[in-house]
Design brief:
The complex is a heterodimer of chains A (about 280) and B (about 350). Chain A is mainly α. Chain A contains 13 helices and no strands. The longest helix of chain A has about 40 residues. The two termini of chain A are about 35 Å apart. Chain B is an alpha+beta fold and about 350 residues long. Helix content of chain B is about 25%, strand content about 35%. Chain B is built from eight helices and 22 strands. In chain B, a hairpin with a 2-residue loop joins strand 9 and strand 10. The two termini of chain B are about 45 Å apart. Classes of the chains: A mainly alpha (about 280), B alpha+beta (about 350).
Amino acid sequence: MSTPLITIDVAQRRLRRLLLVGAAIATVWVLLPIYFLVVNAWSSQEAVNAFPKAFVPEMNHESLSFLLGFDGVLTSLVNSLIVAAITMVFSIGLGAPAGYALARYEFRGKGTFRLLILLTRAFPLPLLALPLTVLYIRLGVDDTLVGLALVHTMLALPFAVLITFSLFSGVPTELEEAAWVFGCTKVQAFRRVVLPIALPGLAASAIFAFVISWNEVFASSVLMIQNRTLTAFLLQNLDVSPMHMKFAGGALLVLPAATFMFLIRKHLFAMWGISNR
Amino acid sequence: MANIAIQNVTKSFGSYDALKGIGLAVADQEFLVLLGASGCGKSTLLRIIAGLETADIGEVHVGGERIDQLQAKDRRLAMVFQNYAVFPHLTVFENIAFGLRMQKRPQEIVSAKVNQVARMVHLEALLDRYSGQLSGGQRQRVALARALAVEPRVMLMDEPLSNLDALLRLEMRAELKSILAASKTTTIYVTHDQVEAMSLADRIAVMHQGVIVQCDTPLEIYRNPVNTFVAGFIGNPPMNFIPAHAVQDGIFEARGLRLQGPLGHRELLLGIRPEDMQVGDAGFTCQADLIEPLGPNVLVTDVQDSAVFRAALSSTATLSKGQSIFLQPDLERVRWFTPEGQSVKSES
């Protein structure tokens, strides 16, 4: 009677140990490059090129401050922020209503529509680059921040639609109906009941759009000449820069995105259907 | 506080006819229960009255005013939902105040009203809580209080007790009855639970396949069902139906018993409730295949010939399994139905 119980216990413990080891490997796999990036970004040029490597950063701000003082870096940083902010507004402004419609209404072609949303990601951006550039030049939106934000919105929109779709699906219809019965118009019911409940998830998906835009490099390299975003600017300039500059640039790119992700991690988990408690 | 008149309300979902020309009048301050199995259209009818669903044809009047073209928000009704629909992002206080806030009432009136209603449903200690911190019964009370707070013309309730456990349901049922009686609100209450319907209703409307089959007081429906569907649906265990054939005009034989019935029929169904029979020297033949002592009475079941025949006898009756007995019916409680199930009046 007790023997099989023990076997199960041992098997379970073994499985848990296996899981832990797996998790540890995966964590190191992701964190190690970031760790070296950060260490080297805060090291002097000599330390970066020296061998063996240091495991603690020297807290040398030389490379970073040089980079920040470099002509164009601050402008492109501001560009990046503006484009990412516009992308965030556009993709939620367009994506949330679409997600709401998918969650609440039955209409012809709903399944096809959902598939089409995903299909927009099936075309690689390089394929679209030439026609897009020609179109942008004709329309006169090439090399403008709004123009670039539109491309980024296109990239972020499928996620925004699908995430808000599942968010709004999670808000019971009865809550809205109760609001209507107790005197709300449809708009008021949305504002007073659905929106507050969905808000954390909406904020998370907005920041997700922000990060997508922040990390995007191809479109902003192709479409922009004067007003490059930070990613494109660094890609162009760091290619020919010494090692310690590359590390500093890398850190400058990774840290804001990583910080954002860290701040919203709770809501991201809730968003993907995992409980946030 | 108003009467309700429903005229010829019809609704289809695709090719499925959910409601087929419903007509119903509910008096001011009346408690009407819509009773039926799931899919009979009772919830659809309630949602049409509330304005959450639109009828294909037909009219709904409340207090003499036609409301079926109005939006839900303009109908000045209140509704209690099956899963409570308590707003999770608002406190109990704000939940109860929701309707009043939408009416833009001044703060002091809102808080006076909320406190008054909260006292009525015993929530005054929980006004600062969120719904996540409440039990099912407490959420139920919040939903009820939110509906009472707006002093609606009509209170609509969609199976409000069905998500509660059995004991709490019994408790809430009694409480609901006294609270709603005190508030004097006209109420339409949807349920599939016939005991709930019997205990709460002034009148019950029994629905079946999109039609109101019978609408009457609970006792009248219990005593004089219009057809075998209603007879079988109300009462637990259900009414027995015994095939009876005429041995001469007006005299029928059923299960070995001859008794007087309506004139002018050859084959009929005799309906008798299990509790309207007692053991005697003569009566329906019954073999006690199954004996279930239930406490207040003992349930005897005859399963011969695939026709179930049940009697609820006094618990003092001493019976042994398989014993053949005679069950004497209370002749005043015998009802007659055509083989198609329609009630036949016995003129005698």
